[in-house]
DNA sequence: AAGCCGTGGCT
DNA sequence: TAGCCAAGGCT
């Protein structure tokens, strides 16, 4: 009653899944939500210690909502993309105010939370609550591109198409569907790698259209290249944020001036951080919100 | 809707 | 080395 590909990947997953905190029995829905925020564009290995510290300090959305957003940003430390900390704090406030402190279960309510998009909403509904939805992340998209479409890399993301592709593979059974959502991601994360896929170890190499076609090189449109970090506005923002996190008193404009020589770029970065709500100007300097 | 948003590890 | 990449989302 299940797609052969899903059946085989699930069997592999049951034997080979990594033991990750959010897969432990009884891990809370809040814990799943926090983990998904942290995992956005950030590798699993870097997330784990941050996640454990975070949940020890704020075991529920209400606990996080009770402290200033700046505390969340400081605890976020070097995880990167500090807006995620701000948004997670905002989401905790929304959960506390609108949902009685309980992480919502339906995708629509989850999507209304700040910082929660198509992936994260479905990941929470499926992995925290066990409901049946397609969950598609970058790993799943790559697995489907190769195994189903015979392409070396996925086409640019398209939610309707990606979710439809996944839906076509998903069992009617909630548990099998949930397992496959996790298993497709896991396969992409540890076997069907972007750079050097380990096809020799792949449980579905015999079903893979890309392998059957001789693993042809990707010929589609190139992904837009990430701009160089060194010397970028993001770099300057990162320097300023590190200074704000380290300080327990306001950081003066003069201290910020010392962080970067180019005044125009520095001003742009600082103004951007203020506009984003990551920095707040006071009479004596800048502080976390 | 393309560009922007941190940080660090890997090749 | 320098680029590529990592459980995305927002504007």
Ordered list of secondary-structure elements with their pairings:
Blueprint: H1 4-16, H2 29-39, H3 44-57, H4 61-65, H5 69-76, H6 83-98, H7 107-111, H8 118-128, H9 138-147, H10 159-169, H11 174-190, H12 209-212, H13 233-246, H14 253-257, H15 263-276, E1 280-282, E2 285-287
This protein binds a DNA duplex (11 and 11 nucleotides) through helix 2, helix 3, helix 6, helix 8 and helix 9.
Please explain how this structure is put together:
Keywords: 4Fe-4S, DNA damage, DNA repair, Glycosidase, Hydrolase, Iron, Iron-sulfur, Metal-binding. It catalyses: Hydrolyzes free adenine bases from 7,8-dihydro-8-oxoguanine:adenine mismatched double-stranded DNA, leaving an apurinic site. It holds the Pfam family HHH. The chain has 289 residues and is mainly alpha-helical. It folds into 2 domains: 213 residues, Endonuclease III, domain 1, CATH 1.10.340; 55 residues. α1 crosses α11, α5 crosses α6 and α13 crosses α15. It is globular and about 65 Å long. The mean pLDDT is 96. The structure holds a DNA duplex (11 and 11 nucleotides).
The fraction of residues in strands falls at under 5%
CATH homologous superfamily of the largest domain - what is it? Hypothetical protein, domain 2
Strand sequence of the main sheet, in spatial order?
Answer: 1-2
Total of domains: 2
Which bin fits the share of residues in helices? 40-55%
What kind of sheet is the major sheet?
A: 2 strands, antiparallel
CATH architecture of the largest domain: Orthogonal Bundle
CATH fold category name of the largest domain: Endonuclease III, domain 1
Topology order in helix (H) and strand (E) letters: HHHHHHHHHHHHHHHEE
**Parts with pLDDT < 50 across at least 5 consecutive residues:** none
Q: Give the N-terminus to C-terminus distance in angstroms.
A: 53 Å
Look at the structure and give the mean pLDDT.
96
CATH class bucket of the largest domain: Mainly Alpha
- Structure summary, number of beta strands: 2
Number of helices: 15
Structural class determined from secondary elements: mainly alpha
Pfam families: EndIII_4Fe-2S (PF10576), HHH (PF00633), HhH-GPD (PF00730)
Family: Belongs to the Nth/MutY family.
Enzyme class: hydrolase
InterPro entries: DNA_glycosylase, Endonuclease3_FeS-loop_motif, Endouclease-III_FeS-bd_BS, HhH-GPD_domain, HhH_base_excis_C, HhH_motif, MIG/MutY
